[in-house]
Amino acid sequence: MIFLFAAMIVAAVFSTKLSSRFGVPVLIAFIGLGILVGSDVLNFFYFDDALLTKRLADGLLVFIIFVGGFQTKRSALRSVAKPALGLATVGVLATAGLLGLLVHFVGHYSLAQSLMIASIISSTDAAAVMLITRQNPIRERVAATLDVESAANDPMAILLTLACVQLAAGSGRSPALLGLELVWQLGGGVLVGYAVSRASVFLFDRLESENRGYYYVLVIGVILLAYGLASIARANGIIAVFFMGYWLGNAEFVGKRGVSNFLEGISAFSNLSLFLMLGLLAFPSRFPSVWREGLAIACLLIFIVRPLVVLACAMPFKYEARELALIAWGGIKGAVPIVLATYPAAYGLDPEGEIFNIIFFAVLLSCLVQGLSMGPLARRLGLTLPAKPHSPHSVELHSLRKSDIDMFELRVEAGSIADGLRIRDLVLPADLLISSIVRDKKIVPPRGATILRAQDLLFILAPAAKIEEVSASLNARRADLDPEQEREREIEERR
Question: How many domains does the chain have?
Answer without folding.
Answer: 2
